[in-house]
Amino acid sequence: MKFTKPVFLIAYPSDIKTYSETITLTDEKLTLSAEERYFFKKEVFTKENFISTFAISDSCPIIYLLDKNGDFWIYDIKSQRAEKVKYVGGIGEEIGKFLEPKDMVIWKNILYVIDKNRLQAFSLITWQVIWVVGPQEDTYGHKIEGFEPKSLAIDEFQNIYVLDGSKNRVLKFNLAGQLKKIIWEGNLQNPLSLFVKDNTLYLLESSKIRKGIDVIDLPETIISPVTFSVNSKKNIYIGGDKFDENKGSLWGLSPEAELIDTVITYKRTCKKMLFDNKDDLWILDTSGTLSLIAPEKVYQETGEFQHIFDSTIPECKWHRLGIDSEVPEGTSLYINIVARDEIKKSDVYSGYLSLPSGSKDIFLPQIKGRYLFVKIKFQSDPQRKKSPVLNFIKVFFPKKTYLQYLPAIYQEDKESKDIL
Fold it and tell me: Closest by alpha carbon to 224, among 250, 194, 246, 202?
């Protein structure tokens, strides 16, 4: 086939089939692959030894705090203001008061709190106690002797799970506070914390995590675990009560419990942690400080891809190559081009040419061959927060010359012929 005028071939990202694992195709764009990592953002509530535990509302941006004095506080995440709840709480054995507040969870308009030896349910509308379970007889005539609640969780059916440290077991209550089932009694070794995600009960032990009927060993990297939470991707984040400069105190695991993240920017110990509905992580440390840990995209450092254009013309003289791309500050695109009349499995590339940000066209003097091999390398910024983006590549051929429009002296210059 012979072309009398220059034509072009275009390759969109979905046309490109050969690229490294560190390159991702999304929304018809090629970028470096990214993964989500968590970073310390800020301290939210810093009054030392003040907060005992907290819970997060799923329906609004509200955090409920319970302090060492047995008083409730409502913290508005948007306005960053805390307001004390009046006429409820305090220290004491009376119903509605606390001796040693341990943990609490929210389900719709009910707040469940475990204390030294009992579980209480509060209405978030009236702040009245709905029922109490513990060593005293409840309205059903039931009581639990030697009850030492350590951790609390609730599922979508409003079943309440309490980790009882006295006998290393989990007690399951219904929404009315009736004991319905005892789970894992006699099978637990140093149980630490409970959590429910998508109606699956998780339990953290010192060296393993139970996920429903599965028991998974924790990576050796994790030291002194005490608490955990599960995000919407079912990744498990575990916090320890000791901080190590090399290993940190906060680790992320995949749903299969493989280590995927070490949050080295968080340099405190952990007491309790919860994800909100945006997958931001809120952590209460052992000194009573509440901190926000948020996810960010972290790109791979480098990646490359290759595409082959076929002109169908033996010894084709290629004219120019156009690249539609976005190169944010600090990132780089590098290109390597070679032409052959045959496709070889191991073509030799001489090296990469750096593309300045905003460059669109590259002229191809002395590039000759039926097939044009284009290899492009992506480089992220040093912090790995940004990536170049490729929208498409366009190549023009055969070579178009402007010499006929210039004086004869330029037509006789050998160097001019390659460029013009």
Answer: 250
pTM of the model: 0.81
pLDDT digits over 355-404, tens only? 665 557 888 888 899 999 999 999 999 999 999 999 999 999 987 665 55
Is the bond preceding 398 in cis, omega lying within 30 degrees of 0?
yes
Spatial distance between the Cα atoms of 323 and 305, rounded to a whole number of angstroms = 14
How many other C-beta atoms are found inside a 10 Å radius of the C-beta of residue 24? 17
- How far is 412 from 420, CA to CA, in rounded Å? 12
The alpha carbon dihedral of 388, 392, 398, 402 has a sign of: negative
User: H/E element holding 409?
Assistant: helix 408-411
Q: How do residues 335-350 score in pLDDT, each as one tens digit?
A: 888 888 988 765 555 5
Those residues with Cβ within 8 angstroms of residue 417's Cβ, 6 or more apart along the chain or in another chain: 401, 403, 411
User: How far apart, in Å, do the first and last CA atoms of the chain sit?
Assistant: 24
Q: Token pair for residue 339?
A: 């032409």
